[in-house]
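Deliverable D5.2: sample structural annotation.
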Amino acid sequence: MFGFITKNTVRGGIILKNIVRSIFIVIILAGCKQTSSFHTNGQTEGIAIIDDQSYTMAIGDYEWRDHDLILRSLSGLDIYELSEAFDTLHVDKGATVNIQFDHSPSSIKIKQWNEDHSNKAVELYGDEWTLPVVEGHYIYEVIVEWNNGKATYAFDIHVN
């Protein structure tokens, strides 16, 4: 009796093996489904507020670290291509821009790109700055860093 393997014994072993495998897969998937402080698509939202209207900025490259998980996306787009993903805003001269993020950043750097492709750093006061008083088209590159990551955003405006 002990030396014989019957069809029922083999079939029972296969069933048990499949049950154990299924349980293992469920445990692995449940372990990978940790909640993150980043959106499920790996991006945190950046909002530009002008004249009490909110606009979601286009996101380019980003990186986020959460425990052992690293989410990274390199868009490969330059600032001009990235700004095309944003509908150009038409604003008045000297309007104020306020920017907000889902998570408080540790640093924010902003570059203003001009029509002649030159750029300059924008002085930020808290989360705000004032738009130019000279009519024209401008692209804003917003480089944000958090303790757990970084991201680049863009939006463009036409000052009337």
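Annotation notes: The two ends are 93 Å apart (CA to CA). Residues 26-41 have pLDDT under 50 and may be disordered.
The annotation will be released with the project's public dataset once the embargo ends.
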